[in-house]
Amino acid sequence: MAIRCDVICGLDGSEAYPADGVIMPLTEFSIEPEESALTLLYDAVKAYTLQIEVDGISGEAVETAYVRGIASLYEFDFGDLSGWTYTVNGVRPSVGCGAYHLKDGDRVVWEYTVSL
């Protein structure tokens, strides 16, 4: 898994973030069967001591989770269409991160975008 913000490199206000856009380099994590992309993200931010803010979780129900911020980079920080999205094996899933169940070998990349 990796966490990136390449799209904001060089923009006004991006000085607080890595100049190369890499918040967390591609890192291998062990996953449990049917683990969600959200659970993997929680594992990653814990391992790298990164801040995270997630909305839409009610009790045990995580299917509607929405990631508002990672590493103090939030939705709308770089415009009305900016925020976090994720891909699995280079494809953007049609379900939220709490509802997407990973398989062994899946490659997850969280990317900050300015054009959601």
Task: Characterise the protein shown here.
Helices cover 9% and strands 25% of the residues. The protein is globular. The longest helix has 11 residues, at 37-47. It is mainly beta. It has one helix at 37-47, and strands spanning 2-4, 22-24, 52-55, 66-70, 73-74, 83-88, 108-113. It contains one helix and seven strands, in the order E-E-H-E-E-E-E-E. The strands form two sheets. The chain has a four-stranded mixed beta sheet with strand order 2-1-7-6, with no helix packed on it. It has a three-stranded antiparallel beta sheet with strand order 3-4-5, with no helix packed on it. It has a single domain (2-113), classed as Ferric Hydroxamate Uptake Protein, Chain A, domain 1.
Essential attributes:
three-stranded antiparallel beta sheet; mainly beta; 116 residues; 9% helix; Ferric Hydroxamate Uptake Protein, Chain A, domain 1; 25% strand; four-stranded mixed beta sheet
- Provide the CATH top-level class: Mainly Beta
User: What value does the Rg take, in angstroms?
Assistant: 14 Å
- Mean pLDDT over the full residue set: 94
> How many helices does DSSP assign?
1
Overall domain count: 1
CATH architecture: Beta Complex
Helix content: under 10%
Biggest sheet features: 4 strands, mixed
How far do the termini sit from each other?
21 Å
What's the total count of β strands?
Answer: 7
Structural class: mainly beta
Strand order of the largest sheet: 2-1-7-6
From the spread of the alpha carbons, the general shape counts as globular
The H/E string reads: EEHEEEEE
